[in-house]
Amino acid sequence: MKVSAQLSLYPLETCEMNDAVMKGISALDDFDVTVDVGSMSTVIIGQMPEVMSAISKLFEATAKTHKTVLNITLSNSCGCDL
Q1: Cβ contact 27:58 at 8 Å
Q2: What angle is formed at CA 46 by the lines to CA 40 and CA 50, rounded to 5 degrees?
Q3: Which residues of the chain have pLDDT under 50?
């Protein structure tokens, strides 16, 4: 099933939030997903197993070095026709 996930990643206790977020987003390069990085959130579109694996990798990449909060909205209809 094709899904879209809107993610908002919040590395805590750092003044270098952008660097931490971009490190997490760079982990998505290994997956067969479409990634649209916005100023407030990132949207990932692809097959559900691939999207879920990508989300896990993104969180792990950031959580290795920062306390992290990740908000996810998952849909099987929003943006899936792209």
Answers
A1: yes
A2: 100
A3: none
